[in-house]
Design brief:
- The chain folds into two domains: about 130 residues, no CATH class; about 90 residues, Arc Repressor Mutant, subunit A (Orthogonal Bundle), CATH 1.10.10.60.
- About 45% of the residues lie in helices and about 20% in strands.
- The protein is built from ten helices and eight strands.
- It has a six-stranded antiparallel sheet with strand order 1-2-7-4-5-8, with helices on one face.
């Protein structure tokens, strides 16, 4: 069972894998980093360029906070591109003793999701919020603006935007725009819109373009995702 809610710094989520279910979850690209508590260990999930199949142990519970795009690198102190398409232990990025204390703080808490959110709030208090320019970039691309329009709106050249995007989101603005467009398309499809209407509304050239992009980013068809 998967649940999520808005939280400080992003979205807090929990997953409890049903007993007897050895399947893998298909995690779609989203341009974000996640901080995850898993069986007493803190992990960092980097931004994916394609869908990630996450194996899960039957009966296991995972608690994570998906940072708002651009926030994770500020809090964790690591450029998003350095952990792109990776799952790494936080202890590989920070001093092991500190990470062990933080992990124990969550493991021993009666409400682990609340404890993880409180931890992220403390870290944000130490680092401060991310550059608001990065939020403006993400907001414009999520709304379907072009990369060129976005660069002009925030006062950056295309090259500067690409470089800043690698640090903040893990890939360039063009790829981030593709990821957000996929999210729009999936939302429309799940709302019952026809695939031709999805393609036109979400910003694809045609339905064939939609199909190619969905397959490239997720490994399956839009029908399977829906």
């Amino acid at each position: 069972m998967y649940r999520e809610r808005p939280a400080v710094g992003g979205t807090l989520w929990t997953v409890t894998v049903p007993a007897g279910d050895p399947g893998a979850a298909r995690i779609l690209p989203d341009g974000s980093l996640d901080l995850i508590w898993a069986d007493g260990t803190l992990l960092v999930a980097g931004p994916d360029t394609t869908a990630h199949l996450a194996p899960s142990a039957p009966g296991a519970t995972y608690v994570g906070l998906r940072f708002a795009p651009g926030t994770g690198p500020t809090v964790l102190g690591v450029p998003a591109a350095e952990v792109r398409d990776q799952r790494v232990a936080l202890a590989d990025l920070w001093p092991a003793a500190r990470v062990r204390r933080l992990a124990d703080r969550i493991t021993g808490a009666p409400d682990r999701p609340a404890a993880l959110e409180a931890l992220v709030a403390d870290l944000l208090g130490e680092t401060g919020p991310p550059d608001p320019l990065l939020g403006a970039v993400a907001d414009r691309l999520r709304a379907g603006r072009t990369v060129a329009d976005t660069a002009a709106a925030v006062g950056l050249s295309d090259r500067q935007l690409h470089r800043r995007s690698l640090v903040a989101f893990g890939y360039g603005a063009k790829t981030l725009a593709r990821v957000f467009r996929l999210d729009r398309a999936l939302g429309l499809a799940r709302a019952g819109r026809s695939f031709a209407e999805v393609a036109a509304t979400a910003g694809y050239a045609d339905q064939a373009h939609l199909s190619r992009e969905v397959r490239a980013l997720t490994g399956v068809t839009l029908g399977e995702l829906r």
